[in-house]
Amino acid sequence: MIKLKKVIGYIGLFLTIAIFIIALFSFFNYGFFKGQLEKGLIYYGLFGVLFFAFILDLFPQNFSAHAVIVLAALLGMNMFNVVLVTIVGVFFASIVGFWLGRVVEEDLFKDIVGKKIYKKIEESMDKWGKWYVMVSSVTPLPYIPIVFGALNMKWREFIIYGVLPRFVGLIVMGIAVHFAADLLANWFQLNY
Fold first, then answer.
1. How confident is the model at residue 186, as a pLDDT?
2. Which among 57, 62, 86, 116 has the fewest CB atoms less than 10 Å away?
3. C-alpha to C-alpha distances, 44 to 31, 41, 55, nearest whole angstrom
4. What is the rounded distance in angstroms from the CA atom of residue 27 to the CA atom of residue 85?
5. DSSP secondary structure code for residue 103 in this structure
6. How many whole angstroms separate alpha carbon 154 and alpha carbon 46?
7. CA-based nearest residue to 100, from 133, 59, 56
């Protein structure tokens, strides 16, 4: 019988490879992703916003949930509803990603870098990680809850330094896009 730890390790390896492939694919197929995102938002409306916000924040890609807000504004969607639904999607993506990192990736991460190096990384994460999480949650730096969970960040710190600033960043983005929608539409040469 296969040990549970091995199964979890294989699942973690699969997820890591899948995330890497998705990130590479999105990098080389930027236009494809942008087109699919626009089509999804047009066709599915707020459900599409929820879905794309969840997916884009769960898996590392060139796009983040911020792109959903910008595209929704260009498509003439109600910014209040878009930001609210995006926050819900981001919340669930952050929680699921962090949990996956805690459950699946920690053992895999330890095996890859070694227990001694992992301990040093964990200590650095405890000391400085919360500030990186906060900065990445509101800037274009990679915001990857799976990694934060795998590095054993505390749930409370993740909520305070990751999730809440992410919400604030999305709200600020929504307000900025709302007031700059006409400018953006002219810049992207789109009419809505």
1. 67
2. 116
3. 20, 5, 15
4. 26
5. I
6. 32
7. 59
**How many other CB atoms sit within 10 Å of the CB of residue 188?**
11
pTM greater than 0.85 (yes/no): no
Position 47 pLDDT exceeds 70: yes
> According to the model, what pLDDT value does residue 16 have?
56
pLDDT in tens, 93-120: 999 989 888 887 666 666 665 677 667 7
Closest CA to 61 of 110, 98, 28: 28
**Cα–Cα distance for residue pair 53/87, rounded to 1 Å:** 8
Task: Give CA 29 to chain center in angstroms.
Answer: 18
Q: Tens digit of pLDDT for each residue in 120-175? A: 766 767 777 788 888 888 876 677 788 788 777 889 999 999 999 999 999 998 88
Domain residue extents for the chain: 4-187
Name the one residue in this structure whose structure tokens are 């949930």.
65
b (16+ CB within 10 A) / e for 70-106:
bbbbbeebebeebbbbbbebbbebbbbbbebbbebbb
* DSSP codes of every residue in 118-160: HHHHHHHIIIIIHHHHHHHHHSSS---HHHHHHTT--HHHHII
